[in-house]
Sequence to fold (91 residues):
Amino acid sequence: MPIAMANLCTGLFNMLPIISLDGGQLMYVILCGKFSEKSAERIINITAVIILFPLMVLGFTVLLNSKYNFSLLFVCIYLIASLLFRNNGYY
Fold:
């Protein structure tokens, strides 16, 4: 049961609408059908910031409470860096 829960959590995390993850790629394809590419990029970036900020706060809280578990905070920092340093390539 714990292995199934870990796989489910990983799958749900991967479906977050952040362009580096599969959910962001799916959201980009859907939004490009309705909006221009520039508008789709802007919507995804705003959505990513809205989602990553609470996740980063949660990661920091987990780090303070556990004193050693920094994995969620590290993943959030990595995703923010991938948003900042990408070369406008969505595929």
